[in-house]
Amino acid sequence: MLTILILLLILMILGAIIALEGKDLLSAIISLGIVGFALVLVFLILQAPDLAIVQIVVETLALIILIAAILKTTREDTTETRGAKKIFIYLCGLGFLGLFLFFINQTLTELPRFGYPIMRMAGNYLSLGLTKTGASNLVAAIILDFRGYDTLGEVTVLFTAVMGVIVVLRKIGRRTREKLPDETKVTGSRKIEEK
Amino acid sequence: MIYLLCVLLLLIGLYGVLVKKNLIKIIIGLSIMEYALFLFFAVIGYREGGTAPIITKGFEKAVFVDPLPQALVLTAIVIGLAVTALLVSLAVRIYEKHGTFDIRKIRRLKG
């Protein structure tokens, strides 16, 4: 089981590298899909079926959003740096990441060993969850009962983000269009500036 | 070993955010960092020989994995989707105004 897990993680890392280094943005996004769907399998292996279900839905939606954006704009990635500057940027980035990896490697030894979590809080939830909430799925019991306020905060963040998307993507308002029958958006904003 | 691979995935996403010049590539890097974080939480909660934390008849005394990180990740996944949608809509608007995804050419941000 550990071998399958490590193989899936290596697949995810390869997918991430391809997603970041590809020249075609559409193939980059589909490589991001590799990472997301491999994550679904990892969740199933780690005994988290709720996470796997949510991740499948979310990954599909994210791919649809990104592909729609790409089809609306452009597919080519023309932002390649050339020459000595490119080597300098890559060396700086890799040097920083190597330093980060070195220090994080020393911190990771402080964590509990894989497969043996501490579970100081969760022991309580596991023993009392069914009698206190009546929910047989303990993840649902934690989300909706023990930590209900967290979920309320999550819903607030979700609402704010959806409002942001609507505000950013909305068309020009009806009243503005009646006032400026054949002028473009740019002249409209310039008029506001003049006021 | 598994922890190190999670951190490596996080670092690849961080590399994308730091080095890439394309807005869509930066969004992809952020998504990869999110995935690495979810993976790390799920790995931390795993218990050797445990089953999914769902109580059914005959499994009342089974060994369960830690449900707390799973609940936190469930919240974070949905928020991650909302953040991605917001970033993509902003990128599309920037492309409509400037005609490029290159962050070096997006200079005139005011007006």
Task: Please outline what is shown here.
The complex is a heterodimer of chains A (195) and B (111). Chain A is 76% helix and 0% strand.
Give structural attributes.
heterodimer; A: 195 residues; B: 111 residues; mainly alpha; Helix Hairpins; elongated
Question: What does this entry look like structurally?
Answer:
Among the domains of chain A are: 1-76, no CATH class; 129-173. Chain A has 195 residues and is an all-alpha fold. In chain A, helix 2 (25-45) packs antiparallel against helix 3, helix 5 (122-133) crosses helix 6 and helix 6 (138-146) packs across helix 7 (148-169). Chain A is built from 9 helices and no strands. In chain B, helix 1 (2-19) packs antiparallel against helix 2 (23-45) and helix 2 (23-45) runs antiparallel to helix 3. Chain B is elongated and about 65 Å long. Classes of the chains: A mainly alpha (195), B mainly alpha (111). Chains A and B meet through helix 1, helix 2, helix 3, helix 4 and helix 5 of A and helix 1, helix 2 and helix 3 of B.
Tally of DSSP helical segments of chain B = 3
Largest sheet of chain B: none
Number of strands of chain A: 0
- The SS-based structural class of chain B is mainly alpha
**Global outline of chain A:** extended
Radius of gyration of chain B: 19 Å
The radius of gyration over CA of chain A amounts to 24 Å
Using DSSP, what is the number of strands of chain B?
Answer: 0
Mean pLDDT of chain A: 84
Q: What are the segments of chain A in which pLDDT stays under 50 over at least 5 consecutive residues?
A: none
Count every helix of chain A, treating DSSP H or I runs of 4 or more residues as helices.
9
The secondary-structure element order of chain A is HHHHHHHHH
Poorly predicted ranges of chain B: none
Structural class of chain A: mainly alpha
**Secondary-structure element series of chain B:** HHH
